[in-house]
Records
---
Amino acid sequence: MLQKIREKFTGTFALVILALIGIPFVFFGINYNFIGSSFAAKVDGEEISAGYFEQQYRSELAQRPEFADLNAAQRQQLRRSLLDRLVRDQLVRNYLAENGYRIGDKQLTDLIQQEQEFQVDGNFDRATYVDYLAVRGREPREFEESQRQFMREFQLRSSIMGSAVVTPSEYRRYLNLAAEQRLVSLATLTEDVVAGEIEITDEQIQAFYDSNPTMFQLPESADVQYVRISREDVAEGIEIAADRLAQYYEDEKFRYLQDEQRQARHILIQFGDDEDAASTQAEDLVMRIRSGDSFEALAGEFSMDGGTASQGGNLGVLTESQLPEVLGAAIFAMEQGDLEGPVRSDFGFHIIRLDEVLERGPLPLDQVRGELISELRDREAESLYLELERRLSDAVFEMTDMQAIAEAVGAELQTIEGFTRDGAEPFGANQAAIDAVFDNAVLTGGQISEVIELDSASAAIFRVTEYNEATRQPPDEVRDEIEAMVRSQQAEILLAQRGEQILAAVDGGEDFGVAAEAAGATVGEPKLLTRQDTETDQLVVFEVFAAPKPGPDSAVTGRVRGLDGSFTVYSLEAVLPGRPESIPLAQRDAGKAQLAQESGVGDYLAFLQSLYNEAEVVINQDALEEQELLQ
């Protein structure tokens, strides 16, 4: 939506910008206030309500499934970061209001009317615009105000970030660094080098288990009975009578009008090196067909159209627009049964026979039967589904037995074992189902839930038959997992010691390769690394380019743990300055633009921090601590 603005602030670099802007201010120097939960924060008197904060927090969890695995401390940090972002947004809104940033009605209207989603035949259509927003649960006035605010904020960002300047010296330094190469020797130590030195005891496993009390937790769960109804199930049971279908087709067939179609056959004789010879051959074939020879047999023998020759020259049923211009014009000028040719085209000479003419009109009922039946079922299912939902609600009110309720609505009583706050199949992570199951009255009170709208086309009721509190798995059940972790920890310590052994030997004057091999490392030939190297572990590349430059007669050594858990000891022997002229011009220009953007981001972040420092911000600690109740 509104791509013309967003495209100026999107893409890979924009993600970096947003990530940087999202760095929390961690409430440094802010007045914490413990005065209830009606608001989460106040920014110069403007409130950010606790309800809105919780709504945004839950939305964040729903949009990022990986957040489900966050522990309590991490969730608390997420809440702090989220509230900090909301505070920052309010600071910007306040600044825009105070400094008179305005977006005129015409400017906003022009932008919205240019959006393709709101257009019909290239022109803005008000009804399409309203319908588009309604489907997404939005009102035009609210949407327009949100876009006006977005445009104001974009004005502010652009004015600050667009003024950034890159000096020639900064640009030259960037080019030198971008093309720099480093000559390095690498020695790799893997876990198998020290595997024989590792011994895992029962005492170590128990100690690891005891020292990590938050690990190996089984979340709280519930065994659940449920009755689910859906519009789709209702529709499947609806039979559509033939006469009703026929009448519906008559009423709707205007939707299925098609252009005139024709079925023809052709024989193609390509020009080759002698166009006159090709023309003569085509004329001879026309004479043979008129004399009674089979068109289909001659097509199979002489046609040079490999796609149709084996089909007796059959072109199929096509509209004029689907055929090459000359061929189409000829076929659509013929009468059924006519033979024409030779007809010259860019492909060669054609001999054509028109077999059938299908007049312009609606598609036959048989071709659209399935679609029409589906539409009729959906129409009827809508009212039947609403009636079924009402019956389910009445049954819940009148009965206390789930089986009886299921029978009252003609549904099946089904069960789920181990339903957690992350959900379970067949409901997945449907938040409405999760909220219903983990409502206290249902979870531990033995009650049947009210009818829960799962989405626009299905609903369900739930009853918890057994509640299992969160527990920790006993050590015996996770022994293999703990053993692998302890083994990895011990291997890391031993490999680090081997790495230090290599470095100490090199500092004592021993050759790097000899010292590395003596420690069991695999030593490679010296290689030139670039910052863009993708074959070498990226942590190793980062560490090598972060190391100081070596002296004329002395290498710089160090060690780093790789992404795969191995240890690499390196010996940096030389640094080769970059040659800017070796970088393609387009890449150099892109680098300059990136430097300017990065400088602009820094300016914008500094501006935000200045707003933060000057504002009166009050954080309600009670709202931050709501996590355990509302997660």
---
Amino acid sequence: MATDMTKPDQFDRELLQMFTQEVRERASDIEQALLAIEDAGGADEKLRLQEQLLRTVHSLKGAAGLLQVRGVEGICHWMEEILSVTVNEQFVLEKSRLDLLLSAADAIQDAAHRLESGEMPSPAHGESVVDALKSAVATGADDPGGRSKPRPPQVPVRTSDTDGSMRVSADRLDALLYRSGELLSFGVVIRRHAEEASLLREHARKLRSIVPESAALAAGIENGLRQLATSLRRDMRLMHTVATALDHEVRHARTQPFAEACKGLDRVVRDMAAASGKSAELKIMGGEIEIDRSILSGLQDSLRHLVRNAVAHGIQSPEERRKAGKPERGRVLIAAAISGDRLQVRVEDDGRGLDVARLSKAAGEHLKEVKDEAELLRRVFEPGLSTSATVTSLSGRGIGLDIVKRNVETLRGTAEVSQVPTGGAAFTLTLPLTLAMVRVLEVIAGEHMFTIDTASVQRVIRVHAKDFAMSEESGEISTLTGPVPFVDLADWLGMRSGRSDTEHAVPAVVLDAPGGPVAVLVDSVAGEQELLARPLGPRLAKVRRYSAGMVLADGRIALLLNVAALAEAAARARSTDGARMPRTIPAARRKVLVVDDSKYVRTLVKLILEGAGYDVAMASNGREAWQQLLDDGADMVVADVDMPSMNGFELTEAIRRSERFTNTPVVLVTGREALEDKVRGLRAGANAYLRKDQFDAQHFLETMRRVV
């Protein structure tokens, strides 16, 4: 029998360190997901969580295969076998299966502890759990056995650098980058103050000429303001120089060669080709390009999926390649290039290409009904869609490309697919160079500011009523370069448009998007500038319409729009009563008090409600909200549950106990998913209980109208 562990001297230690962190994080994710499935109230929720768990296990299996950690790879493979059946056949895991999968998660966690202590788990790691998983797959028994092993204590890894360098955590570099970005943003504030001082100086000059008796006083004020404006401009230039230099150094410290994201992929190609009786090699171009660490980290999982997909689906067997007049050895190419302020990564193979007929069949369509092959090709990113005829340990589940699309959108990028004319398929990922400072176009919709990454903006045009036309399937705008599908931003966000007269020209932003350009109708275009982007956080992670929050010069927050989601909205647009300008939404002048300890959540809900015609007040916790109710009143309350001082349950109970507000509608919008929490909220007196992970603006507004 193989020894329990071996020293990992033969492995690249840096790559192994990255993998160790991934095993630790994903093992914890798997355990939490299994516990969430066990605690979930309804079957639909359990099935949704099981599908998410399948994706996590699938990703970890690919990472383990990259490092040839066969023990972890084997555990994940057999976990995937069990989970894929539950997803495909839509049944909920029984407790015995959950116990077995938790045992498997323990075995993965044990492997993470061994890796952290500098030891490599053997191929036989978790052998008893693997046998139990195999038995469950083979027999379908409810309780095939398999119990958790006690976890060994975590051994800290100590590192020491004596070559004059030191290790700085990624979190600290991220913090430095955000601080330098804030410094650059503050420069805009100082410039505005300098402009205000210059304006006041001009007013003082005019005052001196109008009122002669105050000339001396006005002259003194004018001189003071001139000196202030001069000082502010000087300080602004100095701070801008220092801040720019700091920002440059921090960004440089965060960069790594693109080749780092490709480490170990050559082994993936070789091992997968050997396992499937093929011959293939990996070629990397642009490996020397320096890119931001956050982009590099986010790319690794996507590149792994694309390379596996190329070998599994694209590269043919040596015999097939000979018959096609190709070299017996297939080639997978990964090429990186900088285009403007974007990074483009192309993963291409010289195989058979995408089988359009099989893809059409997998998508549930007849080939003769497909008018646009490019649109059909883009459907490979849909979850559960695979062109593989069989399911193997390498492919066939229709998971990998869906993960790629989600990962790339999280990085505020886009993913496209195309056929290679000489044979093969190509996937092109377009990503920003950094996730911190973003050059954006500021637009107004529904009297609120939003931003669009200028890297996706093709041009800004004005659209007249005569420019609106209808194709057979969707509304379009006639432009000088041809018809373009459109989406009205205010309408899409459930807001009332600020356009007072739809007979006049409407501003539209034409975006470069997967599948071609789309036009976004807005109320006005406010300008263009570089702003600091902030993550939306876990509570809003599933609100796909927005990619980040932007901090404006005056401290307000403007949400960064997701270009991919806008493009999909334009593609889905349909009309049944002819071409027309979008209609506005009637106002309902009621006052709503929005209560949430997250500034982003408060801002998002405020935008939705004000767009629908409500007056909105805000509070950051239950106690502050109760005081506002006593002082100013409100027609309705929308509240989170988990808040400091007074939570949403307690606030609801206080409202119901009050003679003044006992009939005031209360809607709880919370991240709590458990059925008992919903029951508690309704018993406390809430009129509706909505979950943030299932939040939909239209459903939210319908709920508001219903509870009035």
---
Amino acid sequence: MKAALSIWILILATTTSAQLSISGTITNKKANPVMYANIYLEGSYDGTISDSSGHFTLLTNLKGSQLLVVSFMGYEKYTRAINLDKSHDPLSIQLKEQVSEINEVSITAGVFSASDKKKSATLTSFDIATTASAMGDIYGAYATMPGSQKVGEEGMMFVRGGDAYETKTYMDGMLVQTPYFTSMPEIPTRGRFSPLLFSETLFSTGGYSAEYGQALSSIVDLTTNGLETEDKASVGIMTVGANASYAKRWKNTSLAVTGLYANNTLHHMMFKQNVDWVKDPVLADGMMMFRHRVGETGLLKSFISYNYNAMQMNYDNFEYGTKDNIEMKNHTMYANTTYSGALNEKLLINTGVAYTQDQEDIVYIDQPINTNSQATSFKLAFTHLTTKKIKIRMGADLFLEENTQSVILDSTISLTINDTQPSLFLESEIKVSSKIAFRLGARAEYSSFLEEIALLPRISAAYKTGSSSQISLAWGKYRQKPINELLRFAPQLSSERSDHYILNFQYRKNSRLFRAESYLKQYSHLVKYSELYSTDPNEYNNNGNGYAGGLDLFWRDSRSIRGADYWISYSYLNTSRNYKDFPYEVTPHYASAHNFSAVYKHFITPINTFVGLTYSYASPRPYHDKNSTVFMDGRTKSYNDLSLNITYLTQLFKNDCIIHMSINNLLGTKNVFGYNYSNTRAEDGQFASNTIVPTSGTQAVLLIMLSL
């Protein structure tokens, strides 16, 4: 839904057409062509990409003196003033290679960052939006990264043996309480936000900073864009709906608004569904971003979004042999205001407030279940640049939550959770030399609901082994409050806990990146129960435990194949847990031992077409076969998916136009995510079963987007 909008705007940022032509050739000092370089006019969306011979042609309708910029990973940025009021001979531009892409040591264990400012950069917003299989979803793109699991019936992030609730999302450092759209049983969800909004996305698979809390396994931190570069507007029509956007730029201020309406009716008519839909899913989405530059260093950001989604289905409750009607409506509002700037030459400030209002109304077989959640968070953090080699970050945050669930039976039963969570953190980063760095930190947390205090130390270190390589280590203690669905019935529960141990090696040179990371996570105090949703608090305890260990490998290369960029990731996971209603410690249902992804992207300059392919594989997942005496000894078939997207850049009615097609599961592979079993035995004494499968075999979205 949001995928096509994101792809269109991000590609438009580097490829547009107009009247005046600027051409030339990009080479390095050895006179070899530099292909796939970005060439653009600073402060505008007029740009292009060099082809396999290093040649480019940039079309623009701008006038006067402009700044031409050429950039490519592994080379220093090139800038040149150019007068567009007159014609120019073809330009000959030579880029200087960076001596090393890891000029000095940095902490990289457990971190995948999409910022060009960070040494471990792996994904950008453009990468996310153009990754086939992701359909513009941030979490879908990170599902191609090592450490993540393929759990197709959920759509959320499962990282290194952790359950989905163990990954938390932050926006500009502020917690996002509901990062996913509400969904239905065995219907995958997706993230609420488009990658278009963000200049940086950081995915930490573990060992993360003391600044982050209440996440047992991993975090995703999203940094929104700065000021809009210029006035712009666009409209788009998709096979699943329509969207529009408008942005206005003043000298020190910008305002952007977007709107989206999506309806899956046509999509469901085109592709056979494995779901008995009563009302096809619909979505309405609106967003506003306000940015204001304060003084020379300050930036004030305000973001607000509203989402509405609804659907109705007859759920095949195979366990009891019934078709259960379920209707869902969800209203979510998220607001976030932050300020960052410098108080003086050595002291930086980051502060903010965020608010979430989420109303979920479900009618299950004529029984209303209403859940209302309100959450407010405050944050104040300072960074002190003590010396060139010492940086200290400290701060405090406060999280206030009220969650109420009402069930209407003969009377209304209402259960409410109120929690106040203040936290303090202190962290110092010390660069002993250009080869050795340490990060020492600790976080103190308190929960009024759990009446619990925790002190959580965290340590990281890195050593530079060569001009382009380094090793990193990380260790830390982490805690997370049990989910509200359990605390409503068992308020005596305490936090779940994990310890992270990480060893990382990274090599990065000449637009190539290799990462290898081994890890061990030890879990304790996991929640166990005899029967889910039992109203007896004594049925719940914190006696669960587990572990997760493995190896993650990642290779990215945007140099070896002309005009192409690709990455390959592989993860090996060995994990086991005794939690929930498990009778003993086993591998949970969402964990695959082997996960593999290959992502390939190619821009074909002569026909202005961008092509992307993604292949994903996951080894069989465990499930509990009721016909077996051994718990969780069943295995699904392996997961396979090949996805494709094609984007064609052209003009329509003298306006820039993009035609985009995205196809998931191109080959129609019949993947199986698990099995449901009947609650009663058949005549042969066996429990009958049915498969948990994707909502449809193949999915496709067509977009036509026009800039105004």
---
Amino acid sequence: MKFDPLYNPYPSSRQVVYASNGMVATSQPLAAQVGLDVLKRGGNAIDAAVATAAALTVLEPTSNGIGGDAFALIWTNGKLYGLNSSGFSPAKISIEAVKARGHEKMPVVGWESITVPGVPAAWAELTKKFGKMPMVETLKGAIDYADKGYPISPILSTLWQNAFNYFKRSMKDEMFNNWAKVFAHEGRAPRVGEIWRSPDHVKTLQEIAETNGESFYRGKIAELIAQASAKDNGFLTADDLASFVPDWVEPIKVNYRGYDVWEIPPNGQGLVALMALNILNGLELIDRDSPATLHKQIEAIKLAFADGQHYITDPRKMKVAVEDLLSEAYAAERRKLITDYARKPEIGEPYGGGTVYLATADGEGNMVSFIQSNYRGFGSGVVIPGTGIALQNRGETFSLDPTEVNCLEPRKRTYHTIIPGFLTRDNEPVGPFGVMGGFMQPQGHVQVICNTIDFNLNPQAALDAPRWQWIKDKAVEIENTMSPTISSALARKGHVISIPVSRNSFGHGQIIWRDKSGVLVGGSESRTDGTVVGY
């Protein structure tokens, strides 16, 4: 089936946005405007992506930050490029060292959970390779909002309050106080409509912009991070920071019903989405709201996750080749396991191996799919004094079991949840898409792609459609907007169904498609504060 990106037969909670000169879609309206301003000043889609991403570290700090990781897929000059800017674990960390501190599994907060941040390096690398503007121009919007402040929106306020409550319970006094000086300086989370500003972010973003990111890894900011780590007996060192560079990687794909769906290769979990789509390729999906369709999708994602969580880690440590996991023969074998009744996920043997998302496009044909995250909300809870930098807790996903492929080792990249997606047909770009939200992300990718290709939904309708999320074993959560008849039918097929009150756990996505005439059409997540802007 060939879908029409401009076709709009289904009502949505938000209107689809059309434009031809440029477009930005992300989870925070002010950040989208920052990116659009860059496009109007002569920047390209890559500059707009960097500007929007930097602004999001200020405008949505509950989901990402300067101390997080990033990935990107970039269409430019007739080719798709992939950037992996996820950091590795410190050279001095080990399973034995973490266990010696009393941990039986990787902790959620504190220095043990911290890996080298990749976000500033991603901004610098994208600017250097494909940008038209220097970082002193693209980071102006972020710096301005950090300096002058902005009013807190309702969903942002709720997430901030949740983080405040969690950190208050979970962190040592000194660590919590450092975090609170920046993010709760009134002794509480900021409330709806209050103006929040951060002078520390201003200084750090200016330093990053003026040094093209060098200061963060081999300069003044790196020294401050290393000093804070040494003071608190952390594992991260100046040498860890200085040794980090992002990797340009070859994107991986599967052909799904005539369209190429692209993801970043491991250590990212985009491979999970591709394996699931490969399985679904041989199955008929007739009706989006059919229990039979949802059952097949759920069973496919379970099989893909079983393999992903068993095999995916730092690509240097993987024991199975990506091409084997994505082979037609292996997909056919996994497909045979899907019956009319739910089953627990099974690992196969293929032998033959807190997040923000944004999408940008410009009138020159450039398009960017970009994602960055601190992992869980504000991350580790560690904030470097005087900088506003909240360091990610991505290391939490490592295992302390040395027999597992994703076990903790020095200078190793862990299994990564954040994944940008991209769609092409006949070697021509259709556009960027993404759904953020931890392990919901590949599940969101599969549902959005099926909504688009199988059911011809426009971008907004594809995002608005009720979602499901596989949790573990036979447990599945479905949104409260889904028909009770469907949930009952899925339960009869053996799924253990629950319906959360909040829709927040089902991911937040963005889409921009381009048709052959150059018209852009975008959709933005109705589950958060996001928006699409264009001109």
